[in-house]
Design a protein that fits this description.
Elements: H1 2-19, H2 22-46, H3 48-56, E1 60-63, E2 67-70, H4 72-89, H5 97-119, E3 121-128, E4 132-150, E5 153-161, E6 170-171, E7 179-186, E8 189-191, E9 201-203, E10 216-223, E11 228-235, E12 243-246, E13 249-275, E14 282-293, E15 296-302, E16 308-310, E17 313-321, E18 328-335, H6 341-367
Antiparallel strand pairs: 1-2, 3-4, 3-18, 4-5, 4-13, 6-7, 7-10, 8-9, 10-11, 12-13, 13-14, 14-15, 16-17, 17-18
Helix pairs in contact: 1-4, 2-3, 2-4, 4-5, 5-6
């Protein structure tokens, strides 16, 4: 038992020693710079989202589906472990106090990045002038939605995430009397026929411009109780949605960008756009909104440089759509759990660097020869 414990302690010490080596940290920094260069060039061909997911938001990515290489998240994890090991294995003294403070600041910065990468989310909120909304739509991911209605009124909405839309997967919930079998999903597709009753989805390459991608799903509805086994095809922005009637209920199927519901409601009271003189080019635009959260009510003016912050959410004025009668404002909504970490870590790192400079100047001053008159 003692030998097992001693071997475990020895392995941990060896691992800690390996992570805090200067040459390992230098190699990690070089690899991070290589990933930044590769990811930047990849954005031009594959788009921002694809490059971010492959190189920056992954632990491992594959080259030609043969060679695995560490992604940025894995490299940053090793960097965090190396700095953490070096921080807690070095002896603290007045001479290295500045260095320790800088290490703490960098560790907080990496921790904030971890929280942002794993728990934060963002999307856009479209509100018609005079209307309201309580959800944001994801920029990239889509979902398959089943809406059951009773006598023309919306009753229940069941959403299946993009991760569930895999070929051959059976989807079922207690709220639906049938199952869905996914036959095909494509993130960007074109239609072989314009007839929605007999349409086929053809997979095409994903565009680097996300707004040019149109997702589609082909699935089979299986209901053994009512002897139903129908196949449907739905895609984004289709004018009419296929439906299925069972008893008094009608079920509609649609594909839309994934929604995230907010704990408050935002109403657009008025949208204003200011243009340059003699042109129709927008100089500035703003939204007069009314936020309601239970009994709490807030009225704010959201402009291009003055967002609305509430309960950890930040609402930015991103864009707009001009209509014949009413305008539509587009707000970018961000929930960032690590938003405060860059500010704190920057202050700590700055203080550590200043302390290092003063410590270095003090050493030089002590070693300098005394001038005699």
């Amino acid at each position: 038992m003692n030998s097992i414990k001693s071997n475990f302690i020895h392995r941990v010490k060896t691992l800690i020693y390996y992570f805090k080596r200067i040459d390992v940290l230098c190699c990690l920094l070089i690899w991070l710079m290589v990933l930044l260069v590769i990811g930047t060039f990849s954005q031009q061909q594959s788009g921002l989202h694809f490059a971010q997911q492959k190189y920056f938001s992954s632990y491992i990515f594959w080259v030609a589906n043969l060679i695995p290489l560490p992604g940025m998240r894995l490299a940053l994890l090793f960097l965090f472990l190396g700095l953490f090991s070096k921080l807690f294995t070095e002896k603290c003294s007045k001479g290295n106090a500045g260095s320790i403070i800088v290490h703490i600041g960098v560790l907080l910065l990496l921790l904030g990045g971890f929280l942002t990468a794993h728990f934060s989310y963002e999307g856009n909120m479209r509100i018609v002038e005079g209307g309201s909304s309580n959800f944001l739509s994801d920029y990239y991911d889509v979902e398959l939605v089943v809406v059951d209605t009773v006598k023309g009124q919306y009753d229940t909405t069941t959403a299946f995430s993009q991760e569930d839309l895999k070929k051959g997967k059976l989807l079922s919930t207690d709220s639906l009397p049938f199952r869905l079998e996914i036959q095909k999903f494509c993130q960007n597709c074109r239609l072989e026929s314009g007839n929605t009753s007999d349409v086929r989805l053809i997979q095409i390459p994903i565009s680097s411009s996300e707004e040019k991608n149109f997702a589609g799903v082909t699935f089979k509805v299986i209901d053994t109780k009512n002897s139903i086994e129908n196949t449907y095809t739905v895609f984004e922005y289709m004018s009419t949605h296929p439906h299925l009637k069972i008893g008094e209920k009608s079920y509609f199927f649609q594909v839309r960008h994934a929604r995230k519901y907010l704990p408050f409601n935002v109403s657009l009271l008025r949208f204003e756009k200011h243009v340059y003189v003699g042109t129709n080019m927008a100089k500035a635009y703003q939204s007069d909104v009314f936020l309601k959260d239970g009994d709490k009510q807030i009225r704010r003016l959201i402009t291009m440089n003055h967002p609305l912050r509430y309960k950890g959410y930040t609402l930015y004025q991103a864009s707009y759509i001009e209509g014949l009668s009413r305008n539509i404002t587009i707000l970018a909504v961000v929930k960032n759990y690590g938003r405060i970490f860059p500010y704190i870590s920057s202050i700590i790192i700055t203080l550590g660097i200043i302390l290092c400079i003063f410590q270095r100047l003090a050493k030089i001053w002590r070693k300098a020869p005394v001038l005699r008159l």
